[in-house]
């Protein structure tokens, strides 16, 4: 007996809604089993992991805080991935963007007025775009594989930040500890609400909306999708693959750089040797989980943020180790990805082996 | 002195080499498995645990290979049967592997491991210079080279290699010719998992014989980069792995000499060197395009 | 369907409430930067937590979050504990300093203890240990035992604590052999067994026959064992990994401090302070001296006793690398100078990033 996928004539509307529910259901069952195996109360564990974080305003705000950079970066990445540009170096673009965005408050602390923050955000976006431009240019000019170069540049950006914060950008009043000076209010992103939410959340929301419109309604969006699906057809239509590669990388880099600057300005208030808990990599998952669609990314960002916050909650309150939390997170991703298949395909169990398969045994 | 440095480079390069050669086969079949780090760390913990419980290093190695394969089978089921996105599935595999390995390994923290014995090949290992470098390594160093030679032979000299490459280059026509794309890819992914598991065992049984969480420390990612660096040619993986290992080790020597260069700059050298070499190689457009599996990362669903 | 879901949620909520009811007198919470399984820094802090549990039994409940990254996640982790009813929260990495201060301002009734930082508040104390005291002793041992006159030093990041460690090691070595050499390699990580092993091998190949480390894994000692040279453990006793190679180990002993401070919260006598203690108070402990001749053990023990009796390793004459005087003969460097150290003593063959 074998499992066989049969393509549906059109997307299944029922599955579009049901697939996430099935995935969550499967995750809950596995998580419950994991809790039982490790000797924890499964009902309590599930409640703390998946429900409690949604019931109070503090953790809801924290979910937004965690989701914001993920959504912003994933939006940028979706443009890359849609157009077949495999940028997996958003983490480096995030870091380099933050470096560029934060040189103002660090090197020119006296420059503190209404222009500080807009300039920081601008430099941050430009810096991220510049860092992303390196693999883009290497790809278009020398045909160098962008997966590798963008990934390698992650390490380089991290070490550059490390060098700056431990060396020239060290806080002069900080007893030689590796941290920059703390930013003035003029360089701090205004907070929203009573928690840690800042202006970055609405900015990310605006990006989602604008990107959704651009992708669905404009010529640029059409170009991105056509070049992704069929570069040949695109070039007949007069689109340039090289220009699009540069554009996609620059856009993704700009979003990552913007996210980096806002994270530092709105949440950390200073540069530290490490400023990202892997946002750039997690955002790749968010982009695919959201089916490369801005609205989908919005939802996926929240799901992933919930899995972090919930994982932390069971650790803190029940002593469940963080490894279990990351196992549950990994499984959740697997289930969601697998269940998404049901939207486009039907699963059929068949006993008979098709002739083509039976015949090929002698060749392999 | 040179001999000693070379020995250090060999140990640093071997896990990268083993993991990368496995991933090379996977990618040649048209599948991109970004979960190397996750499979490797599972290999490391299971290899350590079994060796520790049974007292046998070889059993540990076998178990590590099994663990890598089990992880890769999960990945294969998702991307081949459920046609999920390969990039996202691979990343999820890494998250899962890091978590699961931590759970399994909790009991083995702070327990000294046993180190795989070095093979002393009689007579040959007594030769000056060549002896210690070539003939006194642990068995896995030789296994790594045997793997490269075997994979190279298999890919370019056998029918199996031809089928594998055609599946990776054009799965539609391979399918039309009657080959089972899914089956070929499944086997390739399992091979990749076995290699990653073995590389993990090298970490926890030979390189640094101990278990600690996250002990692979990103080497799975470097292995992935090496495959692209090698433009999917097996012997170039050797060159890449040794280059990366050599630059890493030499930066330590440069520091110990007291050159006074910021250490962050030296630490970033292996990555920058990889980029530069890659640009030089890929400037030769003809060669890279020929070897890039055209269907890399593209899902395949047979039309029946 | 909706109703079923609703009642299920209500049921879960009920169970959650029920199990939270078995309240202890105090909840002590810990935030770690690494996994508790690193067998180094975070592992030792968790040993401290376990000794709190053992000492107080049911009176004190503990909780921890591990692998909390320095950066945006830290503030959330700390605030979660503050909201969860923790009476005292230990944040155990330098990078948690500003998040700790921020959260502490919001939760004035909760006590905070931050390790290795310098910012205090009404409800924020800091604590650290004088690890450099141990490093002076191992420097002496290294100089006594080395045949090549060269020691290798695997360093993590150029922060004052690591720099003062290197200096103390060198001063100890120079007290035995004024021409002693120390080769420093920065690996730019606290924890990467492979990299640390490679660094150890490079140092040995360059002539070092004693290896000291300020990184967390046991890998350098294992290399020493394999290559037939010697070394020192870090954070925990690593003798099991290098039975023939480890001379001793500088052990972080956080338990006594944690128990003491939790006790004070229970008594209502807790006050903010900056604690910086060493061998004398048992916050730094030397592992048994092994693989050493008796006279060297005697010397090490004598120095240990001298330090316990109040002597400070950073006592002049100390000359900086650039030739300027750091401390005149008999003058003791003040705590601030040691805690913020960013210069090398004369004789170290390496440059610090400025």
From TrEMBL, chain B:
Top-level lineage group: Bacteria
A Pfam family it matches: BPD_transp_2
Compartments in which it is found: Cell membrane
Entries under InterPro entries matching the protein: ABC_transp_permease (IPR001851)
Topological type in the membrane: Multi-pass membrane protein
Gene Ontology CC: one annotated term: plasma membrane
Entry's transmembrane regions: 6-26, 31-51, 57-83, 90-114, 134-156, 186-208, 220-253, 265-283
The name this protein goes by in its record: ABC transporter permease
Organism expressing this protein natively: Roseibium aquae
From TrEMBL, chain C:
Identification of the protein by name: BMP family ABC transporter substrate-binding protein
Annotated signal sequence range: 1-23
UniProt domain ABC transporter substrate-binding protein PnrA-like: residue ranges: 27-308
UniProt superkingdom: Bacteria
PANTHER family: ABC TRANSPORTER SUBSTRATE-BINDING PROTEIN
Keyword Signal assigned: yes
Gene3D superfamilies according to UniProt: 3.40.50.2300
GO cellular component: plasma membrane
Keywords for the protein's UniProt record, in alphabetical order: Signal
